[in-house]
Every structure is written in C-alpha cells, then in structure tokens.
TrEMBL record:
Residue sites binding Zn(2+) per the record: C250, C317, C318
GO terms of molecular function: S-adenosylmethionine-homocysteine S-methyltransferase activity; zinc ion binding
Organism this protein belongs to: Ziziphus jujuba (Chinese jujube)
GO biological process: methionine biosynthetic process; methylation; S-methylmethionine cycle
Keywords, in A-Z order: Metal-binding, Methyltransferase, Transferase, Zinc
Hcy-binding domain sequence ranges: 11-332
Protein name: Homocysteine S-methyltransferase 3
Domain of life from the UniProt record: Eukaryota
Gene3D superfamilies: Homocysteine-binding-like domain
Length: 340
C-alpha cells in the first residue's frame, strides 16, 4: 500500500487483541461461488470468475462479512499469470486481474462498513462507534493448485520441480498481490516443505512489505500432504520473520487437533486453521464427493479442542459456507463472553 514495511512482530497479536482474542476467517470461497451458480469446471477454477463474474466475487466476500468474518481471502487462489496466459490473455491483462482480486475484496469491505455505519448498531460501544476489524488476505494457492489436477492434496510435483522452479513460478504473483493493497498474503493449501521454503525465500528476496501466513494440507494429521513432516513445514514458517501465523487449511476436521499440537511444538506464532468439510475432491470431474463430510454443528463442536490445543484464527475451507462461519463466530463470541 506504499506505506512501507509493516511491523510484523506485533501485527497478528495486535489484530487478535482488537478482535477479542480470536479471529474468524471466511469459509469456502469457491464453494460459495458455486452456490451462486458459478460453473468452476475450468483450469482457472474460482479465478475464472475474476473474468466472467466479478460481481459474484464481491457478493461472496459480502456473504462472509455478513456471517462475521474478520479476514476475507481474495479470489486469487488459482489466479496466475501463467494460467491466464494459457487462456489467451496477455501478461498485462493477467496482472490487472490479480490486482482486481484485491480491489474487489477491498470494495466489499467498504460496502460492508458503509452499511454498518448506516445501520449502526452492533458497532456502538460505550458511545463510540467501533468497527469490526477486517483484514484482506491475498490468496496464493500452491503450484499444485495451478496444475489443476488436485495435486495440492498430494504435493508430489516430481523431481523436475525444484526450489527455483517454485520461486520463479510464484515470484510475479506475489509481487503484484503485495503491491495491490492487501493486508497480508495467505499462502494456502501448501502440500510440501519445498514450497514453504520457496515462499520464505521469496518473501525475503523480494522485500515483500506485507506479512503472510503459511497453511498446509494434510491427509493423516501428522504430515503435510506430501508426507513431509508437519514439524519441518511449520519450522520453515516459524523461521520466516514475515510469517505472522502458521497453520492448516483444506484438511478434514478430524486431523486438525493433532496437527495443531504438532505445530505448537515448533512455533509460538499464532495458529490459523480453516479445515474443509471432510469430503474428498475428485480432481478429474472437479467435484467434491459427498462421503465423510461433517455438518456445521459437528464442525463447530471441534472448536473448543482446537482452541485448547492453541489455535486462535478459525474459518472454513472447501465445502464450508457462510452458515459454518456464522456458527463459528457465535461459538467464539459466546465463549469469550463467558470466559471474561
Ligand atoms: C482446493 S482444490 C478443490 C482447487 C481446485 C483444483 N486445483 C483443480 O483445479 O481441480
Ligand atoms: N481460498 C480458496 C482455497 C481453496 S483450497 C477457496 O476457499 O476457494
Ligand atoms: Zn479448500
């Protein structure tokens, strides 16, 4: 935002304090786009809507703000210059779309704040208007997301993909998103430690002046999706001074408690978790297979255990909805009231 380097050491603790100790993230972004009628059977997946239906992108952000989110994540998960070029767009057009993903989220935040000011009420505290703190996190999906074959859940990129490949792949998108007005970068659905190392080095080499979080996927509650130890993955995040939170996303709720406990062993940074519903992704048909998913009530029933294990930022990933986020928000809000 041209305001110079953000003070990362206190960024997240200050934000969490303003939120009342815990923060609520949004839920499945693509899931909610589909609920509004978007067809995401495309190599760009949800990023397709940046081209075809930006109004829906804004609408989904607003749905999650209405549900109580303190952090909304941009539609750039599968938006890459390389992916846009494969669709026939120019590099410049790709850059515009990446920036637009942040602008749309910022517009949604402004609309939400304007509405709240007009309706005022839950924002009036002791005679002062206090606005719910809201951050915009710019999504950077993993290389596996760009491959569009579900390999963000396997992390097996093959021997030809090196640290340098990954750094080169992510470099321009990270630079563009960091200068587009986001508050932080969400490096999400990361399946292996090589990619975490690439992110850490990029943040440093490019002098990225906004903070970041790294979240990993897992298929077993002990390791990242690739089989790399979650301890090693979280240690890489912990060593990077621009990382203000580390955690897990798009992973079944049943694995989350164990993963939080492992992460806590190697990092004292805030832990962020936004699990999926527990269903399985069919990457060939680009559809979720309804099998072992949990409903919103079950999802929220895990919250206490996740808080006890040490997490402080909570949301949902694929197949969770504004109802999930509303339930999380209520559960945290009621809890923090009874705790004090
Ligand atoms: C987080 S997954 C469900 C995203 C979609 C995947 N990268 C694909 O293109 O099939
Ligand atoms: N922010 C992305 C993550 C997909 S795993 C989404 O919610 O669609
Ligand atoms: Zn997901």
């Amino acid at each position: 935002m041209g305001l110079g380097r953000v003070e990362t050491s206190t960024f997240m603790s200050d934000f969490l304090e303003k939120c009342g100790g815990y923060a609520v993230l949004d839920g499945g972004f693509a899931t909610e786009l589909e609920r509004h009628g978007a067809d995401l059977n495309d190599p760009l997946w949800s990023a397709k809507c940046l081209i075809s239906s930006p109004h829906l992108v804004r609408r989904v952000h607003l749905d999650y703000l209405d549900a109580g989110a303190n952090i909304i994540i941009t539609a750039s998960y599968q938006a890459t210059i390389q992916g846009f070029e494969a669709k026939g767009l120019s590099r410049e057009e790709g850059e515009v779309l990446l920036r637009r993903s942040v602008e749309i989220a910022r517009e949604a935040r402004e609309i939400y704040y304007d509405r709240c000011t007009k309706d005022s009420w839950d924002f009036v505290e002791a005679g002062n208007i206090s606005r719910r703190p809201i951050l915009i996190a710019a999504s950077v999906g993993s290389y596996g997301a760009y491959l569009a074959d579900g390999s963000e859940y396997s992390g097996k990129y093959g021997d030809s993909v090196t640290l340098e490949t990954l750094k080169d792949f992510h470099r321009s998108r990270v630079q563009i998103l960091a200068s587009a007005g986001a508050d932080l970068i969400a490096f999400e659905t990361t399946p292996n430690k090589l990619e975490a190392q690439a992110y850490a080095e990029l943040l440093e080499e490019e002098g990225i002046n906004i903070p970041a979080w790294f979240t990993f996927t897992s298929n077993d509650g002990i390791n990242a999706a690739s089989g790399d130890s979650i301890l090693e993955c979280a240690s890489i995040a912990d060593s990077c001074k621009q990382v203000v939170a580390v955690g897990i996303n798009c992973t079944p709720p049943r694995y989350i408690h164990s993963l939080i406990s492992h992460i806590r062993k190697v990092s004292s940074k805030p832990i962020v978790i936004y699990p999926n519903s527990g269903e399985t992704y069919d990457a060939v048909n680009k559809k979720w297979v309804k099998s072992s998913g949990v409903n919103d009530e079950d999802f929220v029933s895990y919250l206490d255990k996740w808080r006890e294990a040490g997490a402080s930022l909570f949301g949902g990933c694929c197949r969770t909805t504004p109802n999930t986020i509303r339930a999380i928000s209520r559960a945290l809000f009621d809890k923090s009231n009874t705790d004090t």
